[in-house]
Design brief:
Layout: E1 2-5, E2 8-11, H1 26-30, H2 33-40, H3 51-79, E3 90-96, E4 105-107, E5 118-120, H4 123-128, E6 132-134, E7 139-142, E8 154-156, E9 158-161, E10 168-176, E11 183-190, E12 200-207, E13 215-219, E14 236-237, E15 252-255, H5 262-267, E16 271-278, E17 281-288, H6 294-298, E18 312-315, H7 321-324, E19 329-336, H8 338-341, H9 344-350, H10 357-363, E20 372-383
Parallel strand pairs: 5-8
Antiparallel strand pairs: 1-2, 3-20, 4-9, 6-7, 7-20, 9-19, 10-16, 10-20, 11-12, 11-19, 12-13, 13-15, 14-15, 16-17, 17-18
C-alpha cells in the first residue's frame, strides 16, 4: 500500500516503519535498518557475492592486470628497439679525386625523370662547355651560363659512378654547393636500373636558394618505415614513410640546419658529409670545415662510433636495409625546375623566386653563376 502525503512520498507497511518520510528525513531513512539494508545489501556489495562470483571476478581482474603488464612491456620494448651500430673496422676501397675524378663516372644523357627544364650533356660535351672539369685539388660540376636563350632547357651534367656498392662508409668532402632560383642539386646513392626496389639515399639535396638547409632522404619500395621508431639524430624528422608511392615520393626525410647547404655552407668553406650504409641502418653526419674529425682528415680508418649522434639516422628497426638497398652508385647532378624546385608552391611561394621557373631558366644565364658543385674528394671505405 502507498499513500501520498502533503510533503512527500511515505512508504508504509510491509517492513517499513510508520512515519519515516523519504523527502523530509532522508538521513532518518538511511540510518534505519531498512535504508542500511538497501545500501549495504545490494548486488554490488562484494560481501553479498557468492563464492563462485568472487572467484570469477578475481580471475577477470587478474587477467586484466596481466594483460596490462604484458602489453606495457611489449610496447615498451618495441618503442625502444634500436640496432647496436657496433664499431666496424673500415679501410679505404675507392678514392675519387684529382684530375681523373670524372673518369670514374658515366654521364647520364637521357630524358630527365623528374621533368626538369634541363639538357644533360655527355662527357665530351660537358668537357667542351666546362660543365665538368677537374684539377689536382678539385672537381667541378656546373650549369651552363653561356647560352643566353635556352628556350628548350639549359645544359647541365649528371654523373653516376661506374662502381656500385652494397655497404660501406662514404666520405664526401665538398667545398661549394649549388644554389639559386630553379636549381635542384643532389649528391645521392641509387641503382637507377632497379629503382625504387634497390633504394635511394639522398645524402645532400636542396632546391632554389637552399636556405632551408640540407635534406637527407630515403626512397624505397614497400616495407620500409621510420614511423614510431627510436632514432638518435640531430636533424629534424620531416616524413616517416619511405615508400616511393606515398606523399608524392617525398620519402622519409630529415632536414639539417641552415649552414648545412647553400650560401651559408659555402661561406664556411664547405664541409664533409659521411654516410654509413650497413645492415643496422643508414646514418649521415655533417662536419663543417673547422670540426672535421681527425680520423676523417687523415683518411686512415674512420670510426663512426666515435663521432657522436648523426645528423640523420635511419635505423633498421622497421626497414630491412640489406634487402632495400643494393648496387648503389654515387650520383651527382644539378637539375633545373622539375617536380620539386619548379613547383609553384615551392618556387614562388616558399622560395620567392620570380615568374615561371622554365622562363627564368631560359633567359637568365647569369643567374646560375653560383650553380656549381666543387669537390675536394669522395672516399669510399668498406668494413673488414
Amino acid at each position: 500500500m502507498a499513500s501520498y502525503g502533503g510533503h512527500g512520498y511515505e512508504r508504509k507497511g510491509a517492513g517499513y516503519d510508520e512515519g519515516i518520510n523519504l523527502v523530509n528525513n532522508p538521513e532518518q531513512y538511511m540510518n534505519s535498518p531498512y535504508g542500511e539494508r538497501e545500501v549495504c545489501g545490494g548486488k554490488w556489495n562484494p560481501k553479498n557475492w557468492s563464492r563462485t562470483t568472487k572467484i570469477l571476478t578475481a580471475i577477470i581482474v587478474g587477467c586484466l592486470v596481466i594483460f596490462a603488464i604484458v602489453f606495457g612491456a611489449v610496447y615498451g620494448v618495441r618503442v625502444n628497439r634500436y640496432p647496436g651500430y657496433s664499431k666496424l673496422n673500415y679501410s679505404i676501397k675507392d678514392t675519387y679525386s684529382g684530375s681523373d675524378f670524372f673518369d670514374k663516372f658515366n654521364y647520364f644523357t637521357g630524358y630527365d625523370p623528374t621533368q626538369g627544364f634541363v639538357h644533360y650533356v655527355d662527357q665530351p660535351g660537358s668537357e667542351q662547355l666546362n660543365l665538368t672539369y677537374a684539377t689536382t685539388n678539385q672537381a667541378v660540376l656546373r650549369v651552363d651560363t653561356s647560352e643566353q636563350d635556352a628556350s628548350t632547357g639549359r645544359k647541365s651534367a649528371r654523373i653516376q659512378s661506374k662502381t656500385q656498392y652494397d655497404t660501406g662508409l662514404f666520405i664526401f668532402d665538398i667545398k661549394h654547393s649549388p644554389y639559386g632560383c630553379a636549381t635542384w642539386s643532389s649528391v645521392w646513392l641509387a641503382d637507377e636500373s632497379n629503382w625504387p626496389y634497390n633504394g635511394e639515399i639522398d645524402v645532400v639535396e636542396s632546391v632554389n636558394q637552399g636556405t632551408s638547409g640540407n635534406q637527407m632522404t630515403l626512397h624505397t619500395s614497400d616495407g620500409c618505415s621510420m614511423k614510431n621508431v627510436k632514432r638518435k639524430q640531430e636533424g629534424k624528422t620531416l616524413t616517416t614513410n619511405c615508400l616511393n608511392s606515398t606523399d608524392n615520393n617525398a620519402g622519409c626525410g630529415v632536414s639539417g640546419p641552415v649552414d648545412t647547404y647553400g650560401e651559408a655552407f659555402n661561406n664556411n668553406g664547405g664541409g664533409v658529409y659521411a654516410t654509413e650504409l650497413r645492415k643496422d641502418g643508414i646514418r649521415t653526419w655533417f662536419f663543417n670545415r673547422s670540426s672535421i674529425p681527425s680520423d676523417v682528415s687523415s683518411g686512415s680508418s674512420p670510426d663512426p662510433s666515435s663521432w657522436g649522434e648523426a645528423l640523420a639516422d635511419f635505423p633498421s628497426t622497421d626497414c630491412d636495409i640489406t634487402s632495400h638497398f643494393k648496387n648503389q652508385s654515387i650520383i651527382v647532378n644539378i637539375d633545373l625546375c622539375g617536380t620539386w624546385a619548379g613547383t609553384s608552391s615551392v618556387y614562388n611561394t616558399e622560395d620567392q623566386c620570380p615568374g615561371q621557373c622554365s622562363d627564368f631558366v631560359a633567359t637568365n644565364a647569369s643567374a646560375f653563376n653560383n650553380a656549381y658543385w666543387s669537390f675536394n674528394s669522395f672516399k669510399m671505405y668498406q668494413a673488414s
